[in-house]
Design a protein that fits this description.
By secondary structure, the chain is of the alpha+beta class. It has one domain. It has 3 helices and 4 strands, in the order ββααββα. Strands 1-2 form a two-stranded antiparallel ribbon. A two-stranded antiparallel ribbon has the order 3-4. The longest helix is centred in the middle third of the chain and has 12 residues. It is globular.
């Protein structure tokens, strides 16, 4: 499962026939997994320029609203998820710079 497209406040981002012509290369992201490829530079530009706070909210929600567990191997955070969908969403958030780093149990008093 791979994150390919999203819609944030009615604006669509991601690959399409026009954004991903045959032979085109994806945009390099700082924390991307080896199998993750993103072609649409407009979302990355919007994140870098802080153009829309809703984009940041969107990725915060992807990074936090899930049941994924973290595990550290060789100094790198690995996600363990029962659902490939959840893993794809959390991994995509990390690729765009919104990383889920650790699980913390909540104590209620």
């Amino acid at each position: 499962m791979t994150f390919k497209k999203c819609s944030i406040r009615g604006r669509f981002y991601g690959d399409s026939l026009y954004d991903n012509p045959a032979g085109s290369r994806g945009v390099k992201l700082p924390e991307q997994d080896s199998d993750f490829v993103w072609y649409d530079r407009t979302l990355i530009n919007a994140i870098e320029k802080n153009e829309d706070e809703y984009i940041e909210h969107f990725f915060h929600l992807l990074a936090l609203c899930h049941t994924v567990m973290t595990e550290e191997k060789n100094g790198k955070i690995i996600y363990q998820a029962q659902s490939p969908d959840e893993n794809a969403l959390v991994s995509a958030a990390r690729s765009f710079g919104f990383a889920f780093l650790v699980n913390k149990s909540m104590n209620y008093y």
